[in-house]
């Protein structure tokens, strides 16, 4: 076992110790959203006052293209609320290996799905938070959103997307029937079913917290997921992810010289370390992403000023006590180019 770990670590070190840019960039192209999800960890809804203009976000897309990452994930908010999304995709296409996106599916009619796939989006994830209208629509806050999401999945599938995923957040409405949910996803032709815990952040810290699962309920849920994962092995990926895993793993990797593999950019241009904490290390309206990468972002997880905040989070419930509260409007600003410390 020890030899296998050593060989794995050597491969990781070889890949991640000589990067000239990030492997992946996560870009929030808007904070706007057309749903009212009670669990929304980043408080999506209306756009933030300083959201990037259409011109500014194309400039950011050009900055990303300069880095030539393997994957760019277009996130939100609801990505299809960004009116110039196809201009963004066009700017990235040819400069990155893969363009992926997430969506709640509400605006994903056949024409939109076809245009996305034809434009070069190869991986699409649709949020589907239950097996029926009651579970999904209650959680997402808009009547009819379940049927829209299911239709979006069908449209994307028909249009021949390379990889189709769904995402689910377990809660008191859906955790008992996750097996039926996974069966539904298989019937719809989904490639990957992704699930992660309900985070006490944003609206999940206030409005939706009564739907948080207890430890016993989580155990029940995870056991059902494990069973379905075995059942669908080699036919469909069923993934239960820890959103905080990178906070433990990346500082460890950095100590051994492994560079950061992912950059995160918010819809106002803020550059962050992790999407779950309000730690801002720069803004790409001020300096380019390449400048930030070359001036410390490549080993940002080795930065002790950053890691001291990261270490406050050992489990998802620690988000409840983190100050300033994530997505409350307050931030910890530490510009790594100008050397401004929090």
Care to describe what's here?
- This protein is globular.
- Helix 2 (54-67) runs parallel beside helix 3.
- The mean pLDDT is 93.
- Strand 6 (192-195), helix 8 and strand 7 (237-240) form a beta-alpha-beta unit.
- Strands 7-6-5-4-3-2-1-8-9-10-11 form an 11-stranded mixed sheet.
- Helices cover 35% and strands 15% of the residues.
- With 342 residues, it is an alpha/beta fold.
- It has helices spanning 2-16, 54-67, 85-92, 110-119, 133-140, 145-158, 178-187, 215-231, 245-255, 289-294, 304-310, and strands at 24-28, 71-75, 98-103, 121-127, 163-168, 192-195, 237-240, 262-265, 270-272, 279-283, 332-333.
- It has 2 domains: 20-242, TIM Barrel, CATH 3.20.20; 247-254 and 270-333, no CATH class.
Sequence-ordered SSE layout with sheet pairings:
Layout: H1 2-16, E1 24-28, H2 54-67, E2 71-75, H3 85-92, E3 98-103, H4 110-119, E4 121-127, H5 133-140, H6 145-158, E5 163-168, H7 178-187, E6 192-195, H8 215-231, E7 237-240, H9 245-255, E8 262-265, E9 270-272, E10 279-283, H10 289-294, H11 304-310, E11 332-333
Parallel strand pairs: 1-2, 1-8, 2-3, 3-4, 4-5, 5-6, 6-7, 10-11
Antiparallel strand pairs: 8-9, 9-10
């Amino acid at each position: 076992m020890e030899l296998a770990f050593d060989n794995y670590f050597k491969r990781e070190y070889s890949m991640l110790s000589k990067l000239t840019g990030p492997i992946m960039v996560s870009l929030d192209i808007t904070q706007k959203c057309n749903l009212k999800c009670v669990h929304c960890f980043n408080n999506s809804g209306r756009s933030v006052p300083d959201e990037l203009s259409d011109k500014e976000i194309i400039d950011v897309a050009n900055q990303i293209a300069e880095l030539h990452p393997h994957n760019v994930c277009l996130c939100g908010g609801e990505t299809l609320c960004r009116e110039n999304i196809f201009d963004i995709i066009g700017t990235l296409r040819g400069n990155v290996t893969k363009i992926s996106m997430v969506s709640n599916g509400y605006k994903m009619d056949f024409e939109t799905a076809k245009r996305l796939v034809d434009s070069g989006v190869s991986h699409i994830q649709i949020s589907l938070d239950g097996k029926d209208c009651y579970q999904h629509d209650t959680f997402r806050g808009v009547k009819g959103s379940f049927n829209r999401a299911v239709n979006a999945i069908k449209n994307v599938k028909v249009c021949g997307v390379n990889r189709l995923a769904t995402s689910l957040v377990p809660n008191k409405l859906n955790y008992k029937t996750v097996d039926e949910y996974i069966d539904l996803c298989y019937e719809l032709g989904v490639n990957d079913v992704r699930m992660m815990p309900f985070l006490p952040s944003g609206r999940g810290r206030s409005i939706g917290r009564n739907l948080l699962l207890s430890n016993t309920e989580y155990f029940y849920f995870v056991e059902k997921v494990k069973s379905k994962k075995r059942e669908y092995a080699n036919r469909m990926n069923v993934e239960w992810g820890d959103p905080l895993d990178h906070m433990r793993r990346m500082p460890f990797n950095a100590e051994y010289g492994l560079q950061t593999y992912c950059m995160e950019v918010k819809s106002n241009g803020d550059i962050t370390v992790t999407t779950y904490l309000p730690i801002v290390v720069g803004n790409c309206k001020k300096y380019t992403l390449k400048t930030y990468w070359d001036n410390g972002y490549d080993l940002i997880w080795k930065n002790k000023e950053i890691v001291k905040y990261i270490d406050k989070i050992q489990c998802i419930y620690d988000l409840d006590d983190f100050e300033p509260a994530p997505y409350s409007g307050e931030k910890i600003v530490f510009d790594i180019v100008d050397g401004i410390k929090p």
